[in-house]
Amino acid sequence: MENLVFLKWGGSLITDKHRAFTPRADRLRALAQALRRALEARPDLRLVLGHGSGSFGHRAALEHPLNQDPGTNARHGGFIARAAARLHALVMDALLEAGVPAASFPPSAAAVARAGRIEHWPLAPLLLALRHGLVPVVYGDAVLDRVRGAAVVSTEGLFRYLARHLKPVRILLAGTEAGVWADFPHRTRRIDRITPGTWTQVEGALQTSAAPDVTGGMREKVRSMLALVEALGLTVWIFDGQDPENVYQALVDGRVDGTCLCPEHAP
Question: I need a surface site. Which of 49, 122, 179, 182 has the fewest CB within 10 A?
Answer without folding.
Answer: 122
